[in-house]
Amino acid sequence: MSIRIHNTQSGQKEDFVPIEEGRVRLYLCGPTVYDFLHIGNYRGAVFFNAVRNWLEYKGYQVSYIYNYTDVDDKIINRAKEDGVTPKEISEKYIKEFQKDYELLQLRPHTKNPKVSEHMDDIIDFVRGLVEKKKAYVIDGDVYFDVKSFADYGKLSNKNIDEMESGFRIDVDTRKKHPADFALWKATDEPDSSWESPWGKGRPGWHIECSAMNRAILGESIDIHGGGLDLVFPHHENEIAQTEALTGKPFVKYWMHNNMLEFGNQKMSKSLGNVKTGRSFLEQYDGEILKYMMLQAHYRSTIDFSDAQVELAVRALARIYSAMAHAQGLLSLDLELVPVPEKFQKTIIEADEEIEKDMDDDFNTPQMLARLFEVVRGYNNLVRTPSKVTPEKKAVAEVFFHWLKNKGGLLAMFQQNPEEYLLALDNRLLDAKNLRREDIDQLVAERAKARRDKDFSTSDKIRDQLSGMGISIQDTPAGTFWEVDK
User: Fold this and answer.
1) Which of 147, 271, 386, 450 is most buried as measured by Cβ atoms within 10 A of its Cβ?
2) Degrees (nearest 5) of the Cα angle 297, 301, 304?
3) For residue 100, with 0-12 CB atoms within 10 Å meaning exposed, 13-18 middle and 19 or more buried, which class applies?
4) How confident is the prediction along the chain (485 residues), in pLDDT tens digits per residue?
């Protein structure tokens, strides 16, 4: 089965056929770096990391570009507030983003271009549009003439003749049409202006991605990603200016991830519910954030309510609990035997279904569901009261390495299972207002009662722990407990 991608432009799923056989050119709009990024910025970073990984798993060579917008009004204004240069602001928050990116354990991109490093490419791009009479100059400003591009609106399905200032359009009576957008802005702002054929100035927002795209990936690319809020005007304008210059199709497949909500409210500054990625990572961790991002399809909204976070913690705990159990069996000195046919079949079926799920528009929630099915199969076969057998160890070995391998495609399940499970259990204990030392004490009292053959007391303590949401497992190596998942 070939990969199918939902193309925003057609509104349909299409078979993925790259422009160049065996190679994929992927561009994702990165952040404007003037502050810590809000958590919504991380959805694209997490999801498109999985897209790149899956494409490579399928045998493609992927060039994956993720830019930093380091020339922008917001950066200039923040620099003035802080009494520093725009470059100091942008460099500071690029470093902060990179710290978060490392905490998320996502793979590095092929390149992270900065607008400031591509000024010659931008000026050359604008010059070409002026020469082709697709853009015009007024008092040092350069505007794109939307009427000169017959297909304007083909991505967002907007009719430019019906557009008013309400469509995020700058009202400027000098422009030929209200929808004409700035390619170059006249300014002699210190540290934020460059010499150009039209005088000192700096680029408009939309031209920056087009110029970096063209400079690094060429005139046509396979996949362009971004948040749904970028369809118009940003991506619409990217299409117009790029295709007006080159005369070639710019992007073959447009992919847009949906928004985040907090308690079914869209995240916004006016609602006061804007949470930064850094604050979430400090309160929880990267594995929880990635799970929440990927447990919903990328084209649907995600609710980041406290209840959804708790569900994510429990789900991760179930997986890491099984991984920790399996890892504990790997060191046992038992006879080497074949993996039982029943579990072999479970793995084969899961592999086949995951292939279908991810080939069908990168259905990460379905992939996660398949992982849980395998976890359930492992628990039913291996986590039983009976003694550990060579067959159980064989299942544990296959399960552990299979889950790490498949999880790696999502940048998940790579933590030390025992350490991560301990951290998750501590979160669940906090939610129940329970203390680890109190439970350890009860487990020790139960162990003593068992040694003394006081089974009545032992059973009472087990029931007490069960009522607290704590499960006990007696093994040849000792008694272990964990929070119910």
Assistant:
1) 450
2) 105
3) buried
4) 699 999 999 999 999 999 999 999 999 999 999 999 999 999 999 999 999 999 999 999 999 999 999 999 999 999 999 999 999 999 999 999 999 999 999 999 999 999 999 999 999 999 999 999 999 999 999 999 999 999 999 999 998 877 654 445 556 778 999 899 999 999 999 899 999 999 999 999 999 999 999 999 999 999 999 999 999 999 999 999 999 999 999 999 999 999 998 876 665 555 556 689 999 999 899 999 999 999 999 999 999 888 899 899 999 999 999 999 999 999 899 999 999 999 999 999 999 999 999 999 999 999 999 999 999 999 999 998 888 999 999 999 999 999 999 999 999 999 999 999 999 888 889 888 999 999 999 999 999 999 999 999 999 999 999 999 999 887 666 778 888 87
CATH ID of 305-431, from 2.40.160.60, 3.30.450.20, 1.20.120.640, 1.10.1760.20: 1.20.120.640
**β-pairing verdict for 302-303 and 260-261:** parallel
Phi-psi map region of 20: left, alpha, beta (phi>0 left; psi -120 to 50 alpha): beta
Q: Which value, to the nearest 10 degrees, does the dihedral of the CA atoms of residues 363, 47, 418, 327 take? A: 50
State the Cα–Cα distance between residues 148 and 152, nearest whole angstrom.
Answer: 9
pTM above 0.90, yes or no: yes
Q: Which homologous superfamily is 4-257 in? A: HUPs (3.40.50.620)
For the chain, what's the residue count?
485
